[in-house]
Specification:
globular, 384 residues
């Protein structure tokens, strides 16, 4: 199917966990995979955020830091995320990889040239020991090295004055046909600071030295968006859509506002709620409902789709009912999905209309299409 909408996961922080241990971290990845498969698209890369302060601290404390550099450590951690299963079919792309870093510098230079971004000399507070830039009202020990003292200084910073460029988030930035406008999220975005600092002190990230900001990297909240645009460019996507929770969107939307457009490409958000995987992990749940055969399908495919419909989060109390609904739809799936229904279903998926996930006939059609294209139950074994 030819379609210009492609879903990508909002880059996941490369923290100290595996996806088997914390399956909720893969909700956006699984959602993007499920929707892209329904649209008939090839697998896209899984996106990861590696420019984190926690990653800096872990690397400094690592016993093997003299033999393993930061980039290698991040790569090793990403491979371990998927163990013991295979790496994703579409590969991996990080916010500090070559594609994203090159695009970040190109976009930043263009935004500086047209006045959207500026470099200003501003007062800051720095850790007295390591020089890490801390917030103006930050109390307590330095989050980078643990030192308790800070001092005043001035630094040249990359900034975005949002008051000169309209709202940082509007209803049309959310890809969700038929869904209510996320009023709470729009209100949070309206109250973002007027002057947003987009350069940070980090050991690892998109180096801003080429634009004269030595020792600083691009704010990861901006870098997340650029990683999606880089993946979209690699995939030829004109309308990339990034899956993320409302909480994540509230944290990153303002900082990503200058970076949601690049040439003819415009990035939008597909919001999803959290999934109570602990409630879906009970063996007894599947035994009681005779649903052992659809367990992987339920956790890896259906629950992420439900989370896109229930953006406030899937209730743990709803898990048994959703499992029974999926089992009935699976038993009722046609051998071949009706062409008119499949066409309508793909149109709704491309438009971000997720009401179909609780429509028995539409869900049975989606299951039939998945089985015809991926094999029985789809590739759930070893999936993230």
């Amino acid at each position: 199917m030819t379609n210009d909408v492609v879903y990508f996961n909002g880059p996941v922080q490369n923290g100290d966990f595996t996806l088997a241990e914390r399956p909720g971290k893969a909700a956006g990845i699984r959602l993007a995979e499920a929707l892209n498969a329904l649209l008939g698209l090839a697998p896209v890369p899984h996106l990861w955020n590696t420019a984190t302060l926690a990653g800096d601290v872990r690397h400094r404390r690592a016993a093997a830091r003299d033999t393993v550099n930061r980039q290698q450590r991040e790569e090793q951690a990403l491979v371990a995320k998927y163990a013991p299963g295979p790496a994703p079919a579409g590969g991996l792309l990080t916010d500090t990889g070559h594609q994203a870093a090159a695009l970040a510098l190109d976009m930043t230079r263009a935004l500086l040239a047209d006045g959207t971004l500026t470099v200003r000399d501003l007062p800051v507070r720095l850790c007295a020991r390591c020089g890490h830039m801390v917030g103006a009202g930050t109390a307590g020990d330095c989050r980078s090295c643990g030192h308790g003292g800070s001092c005043s200084a001035r630094r040249r910073l990359l900034v975005f004055d949002r008051t000169k460029h309209g709202p940082v988030l509007e209803r049309d930035d959310v890809h969700a046909a038929g869904a209510r406008a996320p009023i709470h999220l729009l209100n949070i975005a309206r109250h973002a600071p007027q002057l947003l600092v987009l350069s940070r002190t980090r050991d690892h990230g998109v180096d801003l030295a080429p634009i004269g900001l030595d020792g600083m990297v691009l704010d990861p909240r901006a870098g997340l968006h650029i990683a999606v645009l880089a993946a979209a460019d690699e995939s030829g996507a004109v309308r990339p859509v990034m899956t993320l929770t409302e909480n994540a969107a509230a944290n990153v939307a303002a900082y990503g506002a200058p970076f949601r457009r690049h040439r003819a490409v415009r990035l939008r958000y597909a919001l999803h709620g959290k999934i109570p995987y602990e409630a879906a992990a009970s063996d007894q749940l599947y035994e009681v409902h005779g649903a052992q055969a659809v367990r992987g399908l339920f956790t890896d495919w259906y629950l992420p789709l439900c989370a896109a419909r229930e953006r406030a989060g899937v209730s743990a109390a709803r898990i048994p009912a959703l499992l029974k609904f999926l089992r009935r739809a699976h038993l009722a799936r046609p051998a071949t999905p009706p062409g008119d229904l499949l066409t309508d279903l793909r149109y709704r998926a491309a438009a971000g209309d997720m009401r179909w996930v609780t429509d028995a006939r539409a869900l049975a059609c989606a299951l039939s299409d998945r089985e015809n294209t991926s094999g029985p139950l789809g590739p759930t074994k070893g999936a993230p």
